[in-house]
Write a structure and sequence with these properties.
Blueprint: H1 17-23, H2 25-39, H3 46-70, H4 79-94, E1 98-100, E2 103-105, H5 112-136, H6 140-159, H7 161-164, E3 170-171, E4 176-177, E5 180-181, E6 187-189, E7 192-194, H8 196-220, H9 222-232, H10 234-239, H11 244-270, E8 272-273, H12 280-293, H13 298-317, H14 335-353
Antiparallel strand pairs: 1-2, 3-8, 4-5, 6-7
Helix pairs in contact: 3-8, 3-11, 3-12, 3-13, 4-5, 4-6, 4-11, 5-11, 8-9, 8-11, 9-11, 12-13, 13-14
């Protein structure tokens, strides 16, 4: 006789784990969601594809920050710095040396797939240089220390013209893999023309799926239990044999690599990197994502990222028909300002009424 699970359903036997899993409503919802996401590029216009790409890039970065802040309790205000390292690292590694806007831009001209991988590793190396500090500081002290990264990063981005292009930024080389280039060259699939955003959609979807799966595996395994122990009671975790400083440093590097991957994807969507974008406001938006979605949850990071990244774009798109919201530059409340008011109010509401975020809190031992 099969054992009963916690929800009253019979546990799948040795010969039918897949069948039992496929019967679950949650599995059906996931399959339906996956099919919907795969089909969207055939029906959405360019605006919504771009919005979806921004949301997926933000979700990858938010998952990394949630591993650090939500699961380990390490406050980081410098997430935007590592996004910038990934974005500009890709541009320098993949771009060719040229002269634009009075700046002699440096570039190594590497294959774009290799440049993307190296840019993520470069962001991880930058996190590794900071990890000794991250391993020893905690709470507000780490937040203040990482805040310094934003000021350092902004100074470098605006003044290292040969690498960053200065205030006007630099163009982003289109991604290419196995001879297939993710640019605006038209590719017809099922009588639907595919351009850069349609092509990037599937690359971003794959990157998000792999990132979420890996983070979920970390949280479900021994590292996840150690990170939660450090978050809940650092001294007790150390007494039980958890190397606190090593885990803190390691998760900081991992979070930096997630941010680097998000930065590469953002650069490919923007098609031009601009230093002003990677400032303190971006770091605050990522903190809002994980608070609204739910601290310590992969699904929460994705939900919060979708909410915070899509809101300003939706308000901009429908600014003509929304009350109190006006088009940028016409006076009144601009869509960007209105979106910050709204997700600022959402943060307050979540803290007061939904401490677990928009995704429900998980029970001990339950999959995240």
């Amino acid at each position: 006789m099969s054992e009963a699970t916690t929800d009253g359903a019979a546990a799948p036997g040795p010969g039918r784990p897949l069948t039992a899993s496929l019967r679950r409503p949650r599995t059906h919802l996931r399959l339906a969601g996956a099919l919907l996401l795969l089909a969207l590029p055939f029906y959405l216009d360019r605006f919504w594809l771009q919005a979806g790409l921004f949301a997926m890039a933000a979700a990858i970065g938010a998952i990394g920050l949630n591993l650090l802040t939500g699961s380990t309790g390490q406050l980081s205000m410098g997430h935007a710095f590592f996004l910038a390292v990934g974005a500009y690292g890709y541009c320098v590694l993949a771009g060719e040396s040229s002269t634009q806007n009075g700046h002699a831009l440096s570039g190594l001209g590497l294959p774009t797939w290799l440049a993307a991988v190296l840019a993520v590793l470069l962001a991880g190396a930058a996190g590794g240089l900071f990890s000794p500090i991250a391993g020893r500081l905690r709470g507000a002290y780490l937040g203040i220390a990482t805040l310094a990264l934003i000021f350092i990063g902004q100074h470098v981005l605006f003044n290292a013209g040969s690498l960053t292009g200065g205030f006007n930024g630099r163009p982003v080389p289109p991604f290419s893999l196995f001879g297939f280039t993710f640019d605006d060259t038209e590719t017809v699939v099922a009588a639907v023309p595919f351009h850069s955003f349609e092509k990037l959609w599937y690359a971003a979807l794959l990157a998000l799926a792999v990132s979420a799966y890996f983070a979920r595996g970390v949280l479900r395994g021994r590292p996840g239990r150690a990170l939660n122990a450090i978050r809940d009671h650092r001294i007790a975790a150390g007494v039980t044999g958890v190397p606190v400083a090593r885990y803190r440093a390691g998760v900081f590097v991992l979070s930096s690599m997630y941010a680097g991957l998000a930065g590469v994807l953002l650069a490919l969507v923007f098609q031009r990197t601009v230093p002003e974008y990677f400032g303190m406001v971006l770091s605050l938006e990522y903190l809002a994502m994980i608070v609204i979605g739910g601290l310590g949850s992969v699904a929460g990071a994705v939900v919060g990222a979708a909410f915070v990244s899509l809101l300003p774009q939706v308000l901009t798109h429908y600014s003509d028909s929304l009350p109190l919201v006006s088009a940028p530059g016409t006076g009144g409340v601009a869509p960007g300002e209105a979106s910050r008011y709204l997700y600022g109010a959402a943060v307050v509401a979540v803290v007061l009424f939904l401490p677990g975020g928009l995704t429900r809190p998980k029970k001990p031992g339950e999959n995240r």
